[in-house]
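Researcher: Please translate sequence to structure tokens.
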Amino acid sequence: MKNEKISMKVIGAIVATGIMSFCGVLGETAMNVAFPTFIQEFQISTALVQWLTTIYLLVLSIVVPISGFLKHRFKNKILFVASVLLFTAGVIIASWSHSFELLLLGRAVQGIGTGIALPLMFNIIMEQTPVSKLGMMMGVGTMIPAIAPAIGPIFGGIVITQWGWRYIFILLIPVLLIAFVLGLSTIEQKSETRNETLDLLGLFMIAIMFTGLIFGFSNVGSQSFISLQVGGAFFLSFLGMLGLIIASKRTESPLLRLELLKEHKFLIHVLSFFIIQLVLMGLVFILPNYIQIVNGESPQISGFVVFPGAALGALMTPVGGKLLDKFGPKKPILIGSIILLISLLVYWMLVPNLSNILVGVLYFIFTLGISLSFGNLMTNGLHQLRETMQPDGNAIIMTFQQVAGAMGTAIVASIISLYQNSGEYDFVAGTINGSQIGLVFLIALTLIELLLVLSVFRNAKS
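Model: Translation complete:
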């Protein structure tokens, strides 16, 4: 297996499916830059505008658990074609929307398309890549969508400044066409399909659980905790979780095999992966808003500020995977987690006086930590499971990732909105104070993540 080469068709299939995830994240991060524009055009609040990101990630979190069922039931190429067509439909809806509600619908449809393509990419990697090169290829798979946050802000800034926000979506169409042609010519079927029944009750419970969870967090900044919008939403989420557990025990083919979380090391990896994704999306929300509102820069400048660091950090992701292949998971994951914590601490200490240069440099350091820890947590987490259970483990990790992203955006947006609308500060001062508290929240989570990975590697050999 060590001497086996990765075929060009496998690489092409990974790139084609990865482009779908890339387009989803590109639209997401480009719109983060456009949030102030949306707030003015649609006359909405900061807490409401973040639903453009949240709805996309929420739909992803509902669709991704179906990936195991889809993999067994349909051929890879059919799934790929469906994902491209759905995402393209969402792009068309969003680009032609003249109301905030229609724009949300477009993002939701895009989420369905990406929700099919993202697990498909990692399933192809796990199924068709030699074990000796799995870490590197998982890094490549992680890198493709990870490049989008680097390009997204600058892409969004230029497009909004020159042509308007609608072209964020229109310009994705040629990229989708390239992915479509590449996927049709490279995606192969290595496993047999079989008839399998979709666990509709489990899917319904997942939708209830995640909808309540994300809706509750999105209203924390504007509603009382005991209100229906917050406390009621969390209670609904709790009921959905109980229903999912009960439904999973009553079927032989549950959407999410939650019993895998009983494997302690796998659980720790999932939780660590979850936290890092939450922290990443929280910071991605803070930075462009800080640059535009506090530093008074245009959307285009805010994109240029974070681009160099984000691009270099994303390109380092396969290197992080190669380090895992060579040295094992302990060193890259721990070093990456420490780098994340340090960069966030420096951000927090400098918030009142953060220049654009400091924002860019610190973001590079932060994404360097992401490149060492993020993909490697997923790879090593799946290694804690039997090979036959790894696709089910992948569905769990992908689901947690999407929920974490939605939560990160929702929580941080709620915190900043709370201070912006408190009446104690003007809008700029509220953004500064909200960003500081948001960073404290992200620092606390990163410290917890570091303690988790230290516990799992304490007695492990590198």
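Researcher: Any highlights?
Model: The mean pLDDT is 85.
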